[in-house]
Amino acid sequence: MIEFQNVYKSFKDKHVLENISFTVNDGEFVCIIGPCGCGKTTVLKMINKLIKVSKGKILVNDMDISQENEIDLRRNIGYVIQ
Question: Is residue 54 situated within a structural domain?
Answer without folding.
Answer: yes
